[in-house]
Amino acid sequence: MTPRRRFHGGPLLVLATACGGTDSAAATEGLDGAEAPNTAGTATGTSAATSEGSLDTGAHDSGSEAGTTTAAPVDVGLDCPPSAPFSGPALTPGRWVDLSPPGLHRPYGEAPPFGCMDIHVVPCEPGTLLLTTDSEGMWRSDDGGASWAQIGDLPQPVSPGVLEIDPADTQHLVYVGGVRGASLGFWVSHDRGDHWTTPAGFAAHADNSVGGWTNDVYHVAADPSDFDHLLLTFHSGFEFAADAGVLESTDGGQSWVRHDPEPGWGAGHSIWFVGDDGATWLLGTQGAGYWRTTDGGATWTQVLDVDMQHGGVDAYRAADGTLYVGAVGQILRSEDDGATFELVGPPTSDGYYAVIGDGTTLYAQLANTGGNTTGPQPYVVSPEGDGVTWTEQNDQRFSDGPYRMDFDPVNRIVYSANWNEGVWALAVDG
Question: CATH number of the domain at 13-427, out of 3.60.15.10, 2.130.10.10, 2.60.40.10, 3.30.450.40?
Answer without folding.
Answer: 2.130.10.10
